[in-house]
Write a structure and sequence with these properties.
Blueprint: H1 3-27, H2 31-45, H3 51-55, H4 59-76, H5 80-85, H6 87-113, H7 117-126, H8 132-142, H9 148-175, H10 183-214, H11 223-241, H12 246-259, H13 266-289, H14 293-297, H15 301-322, H16 330-337, H17 344-356, H18 365-390, E1 400-404, H19 408-419, E2 424-428, H20 431-439, E3 443-446, E4 463-468, H21 473-487, E5 492-494, E6 510-511, H22 519-527, E7 531-536, H23 543-550, E8 555-560, E9 566-568, E10 582-587
Parallel strand pairs: 1-2, 1-4, 2-3, 4-5, 5-6
Antiparallel strand pairs: 7-10, 8-9, 8-10
Length: 609
C-alpha cells in the first residue's frame, strides 16, 4: 500500500469516527452503534479500509495502549465515597456475577453455536466485560435514584479490569497449547500474580505522580503529556513484568488521582476526556472494519437465541445471585438485571484474540462479540429508561434541582427543598462550601461543574432542572448553557447578572426570583438574618396576606403544589401561589420565636404552615 493511500485511509478513520460521534450526538443515539456501523460499512461493506495491511504488527500494541488510556479514564470516574457506600453489594455482584456469566455464556456458546470448549470458554470470559464507555452514557440518560447508579458504574469499571485479565489468561493458556489438566489452577494463580503486579506498579506510579504534582515539579503546560506518558509507561512496565497486569495498574492510577485531595487535576481530566473521545472514535471503526462479511452473513437462529439468552436469562441470574443477601432492593435488582451492554474492551479483545489464535472456531470470536455489542447496546438503550421509570427509579417529570454552587444561598434553598421531599444536589469547586453542605446533611459533590463530562459523576436521580447560584455571572451563564443540553433551556435558571455584566440573551438561562435580585442583594439579606422558609397558603392566608405579613423585602422563590410539582419563580412573570400550595421564600427572621414551631411575631396573626 502506497504512502498516499495509507495517509488517505488513516485520515478517513479519524474523520469517520468523529463524524459518527457528532451524528450520534445530534440524533441522541448511542454513539457506539454508529461507530460500529460506520466501521462495518467502510470495512467489509465497501472494502475501503483494509486494517491488517495498513497497520500490520502495529495493530495489537496500538489497540492495547488505547484500551489502557480508556481504563485510566475509567479509574478517574471512580469515587471512593460512592464505592464505600455500596462496597459489599458491589464486591458480591462482581465476583458472583462474573463467575456465573462466564460459566453460562461458555455453556451456551458450546451447546447452541457448536464452538469447541476452548473457544467457548474464551468467548465466555470476554462477554463478562461490560464497560463504562457504554454504561456511563446510559446512566446519564436514565438518571436513576439511590445506590443503583454507583453499583452499575462501579461494576462496569471493575469488571473491565478483572474480566479482561481473566480473558487474557485464558487466551495465553490456549495460545501456548497448555490448556488441560491443571490449567484452572494455573489460571487462578496467574490472575493472583496479575492483580498483585498491577496493584504494585499502579500504586507506585500514582504515589510518584501525586508527589510530583504536590511539589510543583511538573509545570502546568506539561501535566497532561507527562501523565499520559506515565500511564502508558506504567502499563507497558507492568505488562512486561506480568502479562496483562497493566490494565489494573492504569486503573489504579486514575482511581488514586480521582480520590486524592491535595492537588487539582482539572487539566488532566479535560485532556483525558478529549483523548478518550478520539481513541473511541478510531478504535471502534478500526475493529469493526476487520470483521469479515462472510462471518456476518453466517449468523442465524442459533446466534439470535444465544444473544437472547444472554440478555433474558444469564444477566438476570447473575444479578439475582450476585446481590443475594445484600441491601440491594428488588427494584434495583430488576434494573441491574437489564443493564449489561458490552463495550470497547470486549470488542478489542475479541478482535485481537481471533486474529492471533490458530484454533478451530477462533475466527468466530470477533463477529459474535460485535453481534452481542450491537444487540445489547440497542436493547438496553431502549429498555433501561422505560424500566427505570416503571420501577420508580427514575421520574418521568423529575422535580429536583442541581445547584451550581454550594454557598450559603444554595445550601439554604437545598435544606428547605429537602424537608419538602424535593431532591437537591449541590456541586462546587470550593471544598469549604462542599464540607459545610455535607455537614448540613446535603448531597454535595466537589467538582468543576463546567467540566465537559462532570454530569456523569453527579447523582442526578430525581433532578430535572439546574439553578446557577454562584456569585460569578460568567460561570452562571456558562453553567446553564452547558446543562441546557441535559435539562433543556426551559429548566435552566441563573441569578440575574450585575448591571452592565453584558450577558448575551443567547448565552444565559432564565433569570431567577425577579429582576434585580442578583447574588449580591440576596447575600446581603441573608447576612441581615433573612431566612428561607416554606409556608402553606390557604383561603384565609393567601399570597396577599403573606406579603402583608412579611413586608416588601420578602422574596418568593418557588412554590410546591399539592401533587409535589415544583415551580421556580423567574423575572418573566409575577409569582403566583394558591390555597394548598407551599410557598418557599426569603423572609425576615421572626423577632422572637420560630414560625416553624407555629409561633407568630408579636402583634400579628399566626402564619399557617
Amino acid at each position: 500500500m502506497g504512502s498516499e493511500s495509507l495517509l488517505l485511509r488513516l485520515t478517513a478513520i479519524l474523520v469517520l469516527g468523529v463524524s459518527a460521534q457528532w451524528l450520534a450526538w445530534r440524533l441522541r443515539f448511542p454513539s457506539i452503534l454508529l461507530l460500529l456501523l460506520v466501521g462495518l460499512a467502510a470495512g467489509p461493506g465497501l472494502e475501503f479500509l483494509s486494517i491488517d495491511p495498513m497497520l500490520g504488527e502495529l495493530l495489537a500494541p496500538l489497540v492495547s495502549l488505547a484500551v489502557a488510556v480508556i481504563l485510566f479514564e475509567g479509574g478517574l470516574t471512580l469515587d471512593w465515597g460512592e464505592l464505600a457506600r455500596v462496597g459489599r453489594s458491589l464486591g458480591q455482584l462482581i465476583l458472583v456475577g462474573m463467575a456465573l456469566t462466564w460459566a453460562l455464556a461458555t455453556l451456551l456458546a458450546h451447546r447452541l453455536l457448536g464452538l469447541p470448549w476452548e473457544i467457548a470458554l474464551l468467548l465466555g470470559s470476554i462477554l463478562t466485560v461490560t464497560g463504562p464507555t457504554v454504561v456511563g452514557p446510559l446512566l446519564r440518560h436514565v438518571r436513576p435514584k439511590g445506590a443503583v447508579e454507583a453499583l452499575a458504574n462501579g461494576e462496569s469499571i471493575v469488571v473491565d479490569v478483572l474480566g479482561a485479565s481473566v480473558a487474557v489468561l485464558v487466551f495465553h493458556a490456549l495460545d501456548s497449547g497448555g490448556w488441560g489438566q491443571g490449567s484452572a489452577l494455573s489460571t487462578v494463580t496467574g490472575l493472583a500474580r496479575t492483580l498483585a503486579a498491577g496493584a504494585l506498579v499502579g500504586s507506585l506510579a500514582a504515589t510518584c505522580l501525586i508527589l510530583a504534582l504536590r511539589r510543583h515539579w511538573i509545570p502546568d503546560g506539561l501535566q497532561s503529556p507527562i501523565v499520559l506518558a506515565l500511564v502508558l509507561g506504567s502499563y507497558t512496565l507492568a505488562d512486561r513484568w506480568q502479562s496483562e497486569s497493566g490494565l489494573l495498574a492504569v486503573t489504579l492510577i486514575g482511581f488514586a488521582l480521582r480520590n486524592q485531595r491535595r492537588v487539582p487535576i482539572a487539566r488532566i481530566v479535560a485532556f483525558k476526556e478529549n483523548l478518550r473521545t478520539l481513541l473511541l472514535a478510531c478504535l471502534f471503526v478500526v475493529l469493526a472494519a476487520r470483521v469479515e462479511l462472510a462471518d456476518l452473513r453466517a449468523f442465524g437462529a442459533g446466534e439470535a437465541l444465544f444473544v437472547a439468552l444472554l440478555i433474558l436469562v444469564v444477566r438476570p441470574l447473575a444479578v439475582g445471585l450476585g446481590t443475594l443477601g445484600t441491601p440491594v432492593t428488588t427494584r434495583e435488582r430488576l434494573f441491574l438485571a437489564f443493564l449489561a451492554p458490552r463495550g470497547v474492551v470486549a470488542a478489542a479483545m475479541s478482535a485481537l484474540f481471533g486474529a492471533r489464535l490458530e484454533l478451530e472456531g477462533a475466527h468466530h470470536l470477533a463477529p459474535l462479540t460485535f453481534l452481542v455489542i450491537i444487540v445489547t447496546v440497542s436493547f438496553y438503550g431502549l429498555v433501561a429508561p422505560l424500566l427505570a421509570r416503571r420501577l420508580g427509579l427514575s421520574d418521568p417529570d423529575p422535580q429536583g434541582i442541581l445547584s451550581i454552587g454550594a454557598g450559603p444561598l444554595a445550601r439554604a434553598i437545598a435544606q428547605v427543598l429537602g424537608r419538602e421531599g424535593v431532591a437537591a444536589v449541590l456541586v462546587d469547586s470550593n471544598r469549604d462550601h462542599i464540607a459545610e453542605a455535607r455537614l448540613a446533611g446535603l448531597t454535595a459533590v466537589h467538582a468543576n461543574a463546567l467540566d465537559e463530562e462532570a454530569a456523569q459523576h453527579l447523582p442526578l436521580g430525581g433532578v430535572g432542572r439546574v439553578l446557577a447560584l454562584t456569585p460569578n455571572d460568567e460561570v452562571n451563564s456558562l453553567a446553564v448553557l452547558h446543562y441546557s443540553e441535559l435539562f433543556g433551556r426551559r429548566n435552566a435558571y441563573q441569578l440575574a447578572p450585575r448591571s452592565g455584566a453584558g450577558v448575551s440573551t443567547e448565552l444565559r438561562g432564565r433569570f431567577l426570583f425577579g429582576q434585580g435580585r442578583g447574588y449580591a442583594e440576596l447575600a446581603r439579606l441573608l447576612a441581615r438574618g433573612f431566612q428561607i422558609r416554606a409556608t402553606t397558603l390557604s383561603e384565609t392566608f393567601d399570597l396577599a396576606s403573606w406579603r402583608a405579613h412579611h413586608g416588601p423585602l420578602a422574596l418568593p422563590l418557588m412554590r410546591i403544589d399539592p401533587g409535589g410539582g415544583l415551580t421556580v419563580f423567574t423575572d418573566e412573570s409575577e409569582p403566583e401561589a394558591g390555597p394548598g400550595e407551599r410557598l418557599i421564600a426569603l423572609v425576615p427572621a421572626p423577632p422572637e420565636e420560630s414560625e416553624e414551631n407555629g409561633a407568630a411575631p408579636k402583634g400579628k396573626g399566626k402564619e399557617p404552615h
